[in-house]
Amino acid sequence: MRLSSFLPRSLAFRVVAFSTIWAIAALFVIATIISTLFRQASERGFESLLSAHLFNLISSVGVDEAGNLTGSPNLGDRRFVEPGSGWYWAVIPVTGETHGELSSLSLNGDVSSPSVEQVPFGSDVQRRYITIGPEGEELEVLESEFSLDSHNRAARFRMMGNRSEFERDIAAFDRKLYTYLALFGLGMIAINAAAILLGLRPLGHVREALAAVREGSAQRLDGAFPNEIAPLADETNALIESNRRIVERARTQVGNLAHSLKTPLAVLLNEGRTIGDGKGRLIVEQAGAMQQQLEHYLQRARIVAQRESVVFRTPVRPVMERLTRVVRKLGHDKTVDLVLPAVEVTFVGEREDLEEITGNLLENAIKWARGTVRVSIGLAADPDPTQPHFVLVVEDDGPGIPADRAREALQRGHRLDETKPGTGLGLAIVADLVKEYGGRLELGRSPLGGLKASVTLRRTIS
After folding, report:
1. How far is CA 233 from CA 243, 247, 298, 306, 388, in A?
2. Which helix (H) or strand (E) holds 456?
C-alpha cells in the first residue's frame, strides 16, 4: 500500500511535516557528531594532562643515599592540594633498596590498584586503568615505573585524574548543546512552516477564486498569481471560457431549432382549429403535444450542455417568492404558503430550470388542492459535507396519489384523472429535469392530506 494513502490530503501539512522530520533528524545527527567530537577532544586533553602531570611528577622525585624517596612535587594545579578533589598522585617504592612513600596532599585514603598480571605495562612502561577513589569517585590512573639512580632503585608513579568530574563536564556540555540546538530547531521549524504556508498562500487564492466562480459571483480566476501558478490559472480561465462558448453555442442551436419549428406547428394548430370537427381537434391536440414535447426535449438538451458548468448558480429565495406571488395573483381562491429557511440557499443550476421544476409542481398542486398549497425549502442532511443539498417540498390538501400509483404518475403523457385539464407532462418534466441535475424526486402523502412532492437538489457550500 502506498505511503500517501496514510497521509492527510493537505499539501501544506505534508510539506511542513516532511521538512520538520528532516530538520529534527538533521539536528539530531549534528548534535551527535558535535557531542562525539567534543568527547574525543576532551578525552585527548584529559589523557594529555595526565601524561604531562606524570612526567612532571617523575622529574620532581628522587632518592637519597639511604634509598629514601625525596622531593616536593609542585605540579601547578591546586586540585592536588585539595582533599577529596579526585586529582591525586602517589609514588610507591618498587625495589627493596627503595624506602618511603610520597603522595599528594589531596589523597586522604587508599586507592585500589589491579595487579600487573591483570593490567600489564605496555611497551612504553606505562599502564592505564579505571578504579574507585577514596570519595567513591571514578578515577583514571596513569601509572609508570621508573629507575631513580644508577643503583636501579625504582619507584612506581601513579597519576590519578577525576573521571567522574570529566563525565559531569561532558554531560553538562551535552545538555547545553541539545538545549541550544532544540531552541534553534524550534525556531527553524517555525520559520520554515511560516515560509511554506506563505509560499502556498497563492494556492489558497486560487481556491477562493474557483469558489467564487462556482458560486457565480465571478466569471474567471482574477488576481496576480506567481509565475508557478499563473499558467494553471490561465488554463483554468481558458477552460471556463471554452465551456461558456460550448453552452452559448448549444443555446443558439436550440433557439434556431425552436424558431424553425415554431411556424410549421403554428400553421398546424391554426388549420386544426379551422377544420373544427373531430379531425381538427385531433390535429390541434397532436400539434400541441408535439409543441410541448419539443419544448421539453430542447430544454433537456440545453441542460445536458450546461449541467457540468461551474458558472450557473441561482439564489432560491427570489425564485420561490416570485413564483408564489404570481400564483397568488392568478385569482385562484386557494391559499399558497411559503416557508423559507433563515440561511441563504443557492441552487447549483440555471434559474429557468429551477422555475420549471417549481412551476410544474405548483401548477399540479393548485390544480388538485381543495384550498391550501404549501411550498417550503429546507436543508438536507448530507453525509458528504462537500456536496450539500437542499429540499424543495410542494404540498396540497387535495386527494393525493395512492402509493401504488406514484410511479405511474411520473410517466410521460399519463393522466390519472382524465376529467382534469392538462397533458400529463408536468410531473414527468419535473422528474426528467431533476434526474438531469443528479437530484431526487419523491412523491408521498402530505400532512395536509394531499400530495407531497419532495425534490432534492445540489446547493453551494454555505
Report:
1. 15, 21, 34, 22, 26
2. strand 451-458
Does residue 304 register a pLDDT over 70?
no
The region of weakest confidence among 109-123, 127-141, 365-379, 412-426 is 412-426
Query: Which of these, 377, 382, 380, 373, lies nearest to 392 by C-alpha position?
Result: 377
**DSSP codes of every residue in 335-400:** EEEEE--SS--EESS-HHHHHHHHHHHHHHHHHH-SSEEEEEEEE---SSTTS-EEEEEEEESS--
pLDDT, mean over the chain: 83
- Reported as a single tens digit per residue, the pLDDT across 194-213 is 888 888 788 778 878 877 77
For residue 297, count other CB atoms closer than 10 A to its CB: 13
Question: Which three cell numbers, joined as nine digits, stand for 370?
Answer: 381543495
54 & 136 share domain: yes
Say yes or no to pLDDT of 98 above 50: yes
Task: Answer for the pair 433, 351: CB distance below 8 angstroms, yes or no.
Answer: no
The number of C-alpha atoms within 13 Å of 374 and in the hemisphere containing its C-beta is: 18
Q: What is the pLDDT of residue 186?
A: 92
Q: Quick one: 208 and 342 in the same domain?
A: no
Global pTM value: 0.53
Chain position carrying cell 403523457: 413
Rounded Cα–Cα distance for residues 293 and 157 (Å) = 118
User: What Cα–Cα distance (Å) separates residue 344 from each residue in 323, 361, 377, 379?
Assistant: 17, 22, 10, 10
Question: Per DSSP, what are the bridge partners of residue 368?
Answer: none
Task: Tell the residue number behind the cell numbers 501544506, with chain if given.
Answer: 12
Number of domains in the chain: 3
- Both 37 and 174 in a single domain? yes
Say whether pLDDT at 460 is over 90: no
CA dist 64 to 94, 133, 150, Å?
15, 31, 12
Please indicate whether residue 280 or residue 38 has the higher confidence score (pLDDT): 38
> Do 292 and 327 share a domain, yes or no?
no
